[in-house]
From TrEMBL:
Keywords: Endosome, Protein transport, Transport
Originating gene: VPS28_1
Cell location: Endosome
Protein name as catalogued: Vacuolar protein-sorting-associated protein 28
InterPro entries: ESCRT_assembly_dom, Vps28, VPS28_N_sf
One protein family per Pfam: VPS28
Gene Ontology terms for molecular function: protein-containing complex binding
Keyword Transport listed: yes
Signal peptide start-end: none
Entry's Gene Ontology BP terms: protein transport to vacuole involved in ubiquitin-dependent protein catabolic process via the multivesicular body sorting pathway
């Protein structure tokens, strides 16, 4: 059994950092926090725990912070490698990786969540439907087409004979 004297404390080594190194460590700590926050936000949105407006507002703020931090960590012409940072720190952040290293668009904009279609949307869809019908008729080499189908299709597209 080993005994230690009450006066002995574990030795702590001090690390002397330059101001530049301190700023880099601070920036990387902030980046770590931002990535984890984006991951948690994406999970909350995906499971319906957060409303669209709140999600977008928080995501935009985090994205802005992410861009500022990664710009600050860029060394000259070499951009900071966020993917390597995530791997080196053993971060399990699939949602954040997809969002931040992908399009960087909020999911609500990417998938048009919660947006109401414009009045033109119906006309665009109708035009597409009639175009597909016309192409199908041409592919089947139809010689006689019911005038009602052609007439109705042309009228709904705003065309006439």
């Amino acid at each position: 059994m080993s005994s230690s004297s009450p006066d002995s404390e574990p030795s702590l080594s001090k690390v002397a950092l330059t101001n530049a190194e301190r700023r880099e460590v601070d920036a990387k700590g902030n980046l770590f926090s931002i990535i984890k926050a984006v991951d948690a936000l994406e999970k909350a949105f995906a499971t319906g725990l957060i409303q669209d407006e709140s999600y977008e507002k928080q995501y935009q703020q985090l994205l802005t912070q992410y861009k500022v931090i990664t710009t600050a960590l860029t060394q000259g012409a070499i951009p900071f490698d966020v993917e390597k940072f995530i791997k080196d720190n053993h971060m399990q952040v699939h949602y954040a990786r997809v969002r931040l290293l992908g399009t960087q668009l909020p999911a609500t904009k990417m998938y048009h969540s919660g947006e109401k279609g414009s009045p033109d949307t119906v006309h665009i869809l109708d035009a597409g439907q009639h175009f597909v019908t016309l192409v199908d008729c041409l592919k089947m080499e139809m010689v006689v087409v019911t005038p009602c189908v052609v007439q109705q299709g042309l009228l709904s597209l705003g065309l006439s004979r």
